[in-house]
C-alpha cells in the first residue's frame, strides 16, 4: 500500500521536506508492482524513481511536485507503446512524445508511475479484457471495477496512486468512479486537449481525471484544463433528473440521490423526456464512428480483437450512413433541449450507475426487470448525458456498503461553483471516498 494521503497533502509535505518524493514514489511503485487487482498494465519504476530524485534535488517543481499518478493505457507515454488495451497494438512503434495532458501533469511536477488496464479500445463498461485480464474492484475482488477506465479507478481506490487519468466517451470515467467509490470527472467537450490520446469516438471523447477527494480532483482538473477555477460560494439551483433516470435504479442509486437532495433541502425535479432517445443516438454514433475507425484493421486482423469488441465494431461499421446522419442531427436537437433545463436549474443530479458493482461471474444487471450484459448497460444513465457535451462530476456517496456514485451535471462555466458545493458536501460527510475495508 502506498501513502494514502491526499495529493495536495503529499505535495505540501514534499515541499516542506517532511518526506522525500523518492520515498513516496518508491511506495507507489512497490504497491503497483504487487497490484492484486489487475489495475496496472505497465509499471515505469526506474523512470519514476529518477524523476522523484530530481524533485528532491529541486530540478523539478510545481504544485504537484512528487505526487505519483498513472494513466489509462490509451494515453501516449514517450518511449512506450500505447496499447489502448489491445493485443494487436503490442508490436506497434513506441510513442515519440507524451500526450498533452501527461505533459501538463509532468510540468506540474507529478510523477508518472505506470499505465492502467481498460476495456479493449475503450468499448465497454466493465474492464473485462480478453488479453490483459479483468480489473477487480478493490472493495470486493469478486466484483467488477467498471469501465472502460476500470484500472484508473481501481488504482486510486486501492491507494496505489492518489491521482489517475482515464477517458470518458459514454461514461467510462463515471461508471468506474461510481463502482469503486472515487471521485471522477467528465469535463465539458473540448475543455481538455485530446492530443496523444487514442480515439474511440472523437465526437464524444473526453479526458477524465480520478482522485480520492474533491479538492484533489479540482486541482487535477485545473492542471489538465490549464485554468484556475473561480467561484465556490454562490447559491446554485439544484434539481434531480427523474423519469428515465429513476427507471431501473436499484434502491442504493435512489438513496444516493435522495440523500444529497435532502441535505440540500431541494425537492425540485427536472424532466428530460428525450433522455432515452439521447442515449440511443449516442449509442448509434458510438457504434458507427467506432466501427468506421477500425474498419481497415478489422479487415486485416479481425482475429486479433477481443471477440466481444470485434463483433460490436463490425456491427457498427455495417450501419447505413443515413442512420448515422440521423443520429448526428438529433445530437444538435438534444443539446438544445438539454440546455433549456439550465434556464431553470444550474445543477442536475442523477445516478452514475443503476446499481453498485455486480459480480464478475454474473456479468449482468437488471434492465427493465430482465438480466442484461453489464458490459453494455452499466453506463445507461451516463450515456444519456454524454451527448449533451456538458461537464459532469462523478461524486461518491459516503457509505459503509458497496460504493455508488452520482452524476453532478452542470452548465459549462459553473465548474468552480459546483466544486465549491462538492467540497461542502464532502466536509459534511454526505459525499466522499471510503477506502476498501471501511478505512478512513
From TrEMBL:
It holds the Pfam family Amidase. InterPro entries: Amidase, Amidase_dom, AS_sf, Carboxybiuret_hydro_AtzE. Keywords: Hydrolase. The keyword Electron transport does not apply. It comes from the Bacteria. One of its GO terms (molecular function) is hydrolase activity. SUPFAM superfamilies: Amidase signature (AS) enzymes. Signal peptide: none annotated. Residues 35-417 form the Amidase domain. This is Amidohydrolase, AtzE family. It comes from Asticcacaulis excentricus (strain ATCC 15261 / DSM 4724 / KCTC 12464 / NCIMB 9791 / VKM B-1370 / CB 48). The lineage of its organism: Bacteria, Pseudomonadati, Pseudomonadota, Alphaproteobacteria, Caulobacterales.
Amino acid at each position: 500500500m502506498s501513502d494514502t494521503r491526499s495529493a495536495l497533502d503529499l505535495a505540501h509535505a514534499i515541499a516542506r521536506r517532511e518526506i522525500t518524493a523518492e520515498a513516496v514514489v518508491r511506495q507507489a511503485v512497490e504497491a503497483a508492482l504487487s497490484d492484486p487487482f489487475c489495475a496496472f498494465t505497465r509499471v515505469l519504476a526506474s523512470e519514476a524513481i529518477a524523476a522523484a530524485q530530481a524533485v528532491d534535488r529541486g530540478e523539478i517543481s510545481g504544485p504537484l511536485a512528487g505526487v505519483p499518478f498513472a494513466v489509462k493505457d490509451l494515453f501516449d507515454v514517450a518511449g512506450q507503446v500505447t496499447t489502448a488495451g489491445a493485443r494487436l497494438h503490442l508490436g506497434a512503434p513506441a510513442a515519440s512524445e507524451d500526450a498533452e495532458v501527461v505533459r501538463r501533469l509532468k510540468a506540474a511536477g507529478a510523477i508518472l508511475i505506470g499505465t492502467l488496464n481498460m476495456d479493449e479500445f475503450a468499448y465497454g463498461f466493465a474492464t473485462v479484457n480478453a488479453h490483459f485480464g479483468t480489473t477487480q474492484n478493490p472493495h470486493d475482488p469478486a466484483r467488477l471495477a467498471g469501465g472502460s477506465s476500470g484500472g484508473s479507478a481501481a488504482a486510486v481506490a486501492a491507494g496505489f496512486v492518489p491521482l489517475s487519468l482515464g477517458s470518458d466517451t459514454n461514461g467510462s470515467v463515471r461508471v468506474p468512479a461510481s463502482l469503486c467509490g472515487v471521485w471522477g470527472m467528465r469535463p465539458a467537450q473540448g475543455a481538455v486537449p485530446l492530443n496523444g490520446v487514442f480515439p474511440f469516438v472523437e465526437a464524444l471523447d473526453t479526458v477524465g481525471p480520478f482522485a480520492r477527494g474533491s479538492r484533489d480532483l479540482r486541482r487535477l482538473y485545473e492542471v489538465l484544463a490549464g485554468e484556475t477555477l473561480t467561484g465556490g460560494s454562490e447559491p446554485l439551483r439544484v434539481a434531480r433528473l427523474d423519469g428515465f433516470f429513476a427507471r431501473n435504479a436499484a434502491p442504493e442509486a435512489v438513496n444516493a440521490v435522495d440523500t444529497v437532495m435532502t441535505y440540500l433541502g431541494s425537492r425540485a425535479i427536472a424532466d428530460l423526456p428525450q433522455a432515452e432517445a439521447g442515449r440511443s443516438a449516442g449509442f448509434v454514433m458510438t457504434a458507427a464512428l467506432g466501427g468506421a475507425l477500425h474498419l481497415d484493421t478489422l479487415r486485416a486482423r479481425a482475429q486479433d480483437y477481443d471477440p466481444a469488441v470485434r463483433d460490436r465494431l463490425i456491427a457498427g461499421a455495417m450501419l447505413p450512413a443515413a442512420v448515422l446522419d440521423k443520429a448526428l442531427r438529433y445530437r444538435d436537437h438534444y443539446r438544445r433541449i438539454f440546455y433549456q433545463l439550465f434556464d431553470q436549474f444550474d445543477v442536475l443530479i442523477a445516478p452514475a450507475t443503476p446499481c453498485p458493482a455486480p459480480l464478475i461471474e454474473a456479468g449482468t444487471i437488471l434492465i427493465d426487470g430482465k438480466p442484461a450484459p453489464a458490459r453494455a448497460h452499466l453506463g445507461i444513465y451516463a450515456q444519456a448525458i454524454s451527448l449533451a457535451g456538458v461537464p459532469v462530476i462523478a461524486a461518491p456517496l459516503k457509505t459503509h456498503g458497496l460504493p455508488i456514485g452520482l452524476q453532478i451535471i452542470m452548465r459549462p462555466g459553473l465548474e468552480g461553483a459546483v466544486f465549491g458545493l462538492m467540497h461542502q458536501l464532502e466536509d459534511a460527510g454526505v459525499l466522499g471516498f471510503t477506502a476498501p475495508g471501511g478505512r478512513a
